[in-house]
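Our consortium's second objective concerns turning raw sequence data into structural hypotheses that experimental partners can test. To show how far this objective has progressed, the report includes one record in full. It was chosen at random from the queue rather than selected for favorable results. The single chain below, 805 residues long, was entered without modification.
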Amino acid sequence: SILFYLSKNVIVSIQKLLDQFDEKKLAKGEVNPLLSIKLELYEKEVELNALYDDLKHEDDPESKDVFQIVLAWAQDFFQVGSVMKKFSDQKDYLSSLVDNKTEVEIFLDKKRGTIKTSVKAQMKALNLVIDKVRAECTKLQKEYEAFEPLWGSALEDEFADFMKLLIQKKEKWTTANDGKAMSPMVESEIELKDFEKKIVKYRKYRADVEAMPTPVEVKWLKIDCTPIKNSLEDWVAKRINNFTSYLFNEVTFKLNNVEMQMNEVNEGLKEVSPDSENVSQELKDVLGYIQTVRTRKHVVKNMFEPMRATVKLLTKYGRPFSEEDNKALTDAPQKWEATCNKVDKVSESIQKLQTAEAERIRARVRDYFDTVLSVRREFQNQDAFNFEKGIEAAFISMGDQYTVLNEVETKIDMLTSEEKLFECEVKSAAYKRKIELCRNENRSLKIIWDMASLVHWTFTDWEKTLWHDIDAEKLGEECKKLQKQFRKFKKQCGQFKAYMGLDDKIKNMMVILPLISDLHSESMKDRHWDRLMKETKKHFVMGPKFCLKDMLDLELHKFQEVVGDIVDEADKQAKIQVQLAKIKATWADMKLEFQEHKSGVNMILASEDLTIALEENMASLQTMQAQGKNVEFFREDVDYWTDCLRTVESVFNDWVEVQANWGSLETIFIGSEDIRKQLPQDAARFEGIDAKFRKLMGEVVKTPLVTDALNDKKRKDLLDEMKKGLEQCEKSLFAYLEVKRMFFPRFYFVSNAALLDILSNGGNPQAIQKHLGDCFNNVIRLQYKKEEKALSTPELKEFEEILRV
């Protein structure tokens, strides 16, 4: 079939490719490696790249993978299946070829003969060959990745870490030797030993890289390793140069520096004539050179041996110096020694001139002490020390003093330099301590006034806040933060008046803010604000634009107790006002209650609510009156209600007493003819009281409001008069009852009221049955017969006669 021959075509093609990859043929040289590629270091990665420049830099990584290229060739063999179409469905044979397992017999060669195989088996054999080669290539990549330290870190980072470790090693040596200073030679030996280790390390890398073979044949693949070896050798050179260049430059710099210094000194050193117009300056110049040489004499002398050791090391590892530099290094010690001798000779020649100039310098130093003291005094009198001078003046004065101190310090440094130069005792250095003291104080003042500026602008921003928008609690918290921040500098700046002034300003604000919070009390009225203005002697208007600044202008921190007293007064007066309002509301609708007496007269009921209200309100008014000045504003109302309720209480008590007495006597003097006959004057008196009482009760029923009915002193007088009359009636009545008791002693066993009831009902025996038990033992009640005219026992007969009388 067509598929059979297409499959055979693909199998033969793949077999031709496999023959090119045959290991035995490659080993015998019958075939050469089919492909050549190169191993590169590309963006710090070891990569195998196919030798196709047009593919190397494409974005698709598979396009430069040699193994993918080989597989692509095999895939191209299958394209023969797309040439012909099936008769059944007009589709090509490509998909049928890919996984075809039909075995086909093909001829290899005379030696190997024929074999039976399929498309799928051939592709499996090809993948196996490719995988073996890929594994060996990966192994080769790993061998080169072992050199990763060469490119893995930046040159400057490696050198910085190296120098850091070197410094630590020197410090460790110093510690181990009890803090003894390290000699230049020892220091050089330590440094060169570590530098040599680094150089040897990278030279070893170079040898290892050079020993790597190239090209490398991996079965059917030839790998050119030259690109990666070149890259690695470049990195080795950079690493070695990183260390050798440092040593080379250091030696060159030191040698050039010494040469320049010797040339400068030799040119500058000369005899100074005492007749020279500028003898002082010439002396300074010469002494400057002398001082430079003497200061560096031993340092430079000890420098040459380490430099020679460094040159030897660099020459050993391929970084030699030029003949000129070597000669300069060889001659340098003799030149330096000659320079030092010349310095000693010139120094002797100018000794007298030096002594004379030194005396003049001492005089200038002594004279300048007065200037330093004057500067110190002026510094201490500057505006920055006085908080009242303000921020602007303080910063100006600090700036001026800074300039003055710089000028004085420069002058002192010059005098000190001259003293050292002419080998005088250095006294001017002590002057600098005073200037340094001024500088420290100026820095402290700067801290204070920086903080003062922050506080000022913070408070200024707060001052714009309108009265009703002030959140005193929040501002208080912010103020505490400012105070905490400022008091961190107390140890450094606390002795200055400026510090104390700013501290007072913050403390005053912290006092004022709670007072402002108190003044926001709803109890505050116009009279209280008027008193605040009077106490502070400052005027303000509590209008819509009233703000925190207006309140701060009152300087409330000076009137802390006054403000507290005003707010306390306002709060207490507010309570008084509320209590008075409650009292007014209570009595505005408090009415008397009435109950009809058996006589038909409406009597006042003893109301518990009225009594309780009287007690509570009288107690409240008494408390108000005890509050001294706080009650003065309400004095008129308090006095009115005190008098009113006292009158109500008095009239109510008298009224209740009068109506009680009237009620008990009314049935006797009005309802008992016997008593009216016996007590005619008192009966007439009672009739007058009765008429007044009935009229009074008629009036009060029409006006039951307590304050209208009882707050009437005329009624009080009337009730007092009635009470006296009723008491007289009672007195006469009690005398009458005493006479009855004397006639019939058993009446002593009953109360006045019971006796009056008995006497009032003398014609009605049944009405007095309830009192018989009090008069006679073992008697509860009596049963009467209509036909009986007289009682049976002598005592009852006597009782009957008394009743009839």
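The partners drew two points from this record. DSSP finds 30 helices and eight strands in the chain. Confidence is low (pLDDT under 50) at residues 52-57. Both points have been shared with the crystallography group to help prioritize constructs.
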